[in-house]
Amino acid sequence: MPPRLKTRHGPSKKTKIPLKCCFRPRIACKGAAVAPPIGQAARGGIAPAKRDRGVYEAVERIRIGVSSCLLGESVRWDGGHKRDVYITGTLARCFELVPICPEVAIGLGVPRDPIRLVGRAEAPRALSAGTPELDLTAKLSAHGRETAHRFSDLCGYLFKSGSPSCGLGRVKLLPERGGRPAHAGVGIFAREIQSALPMLPVEDESRMAKPELRATFLECVFAYGRWRTLTASGLTVQGLVDFHGRHRLALLARQMKAAGELERVLAAAGRRSPPRLAAQYGALFMKVLRKPATRRGHTHALRNALGCLKRVLDREERKELAESIERYRLGNLPRVVPLTLLRHHLRRHPEPSLDGQTYLECQAPE
Ligand code: SF4
Question: Model-level pTM?
Answer without folding.
Answer: 0.83
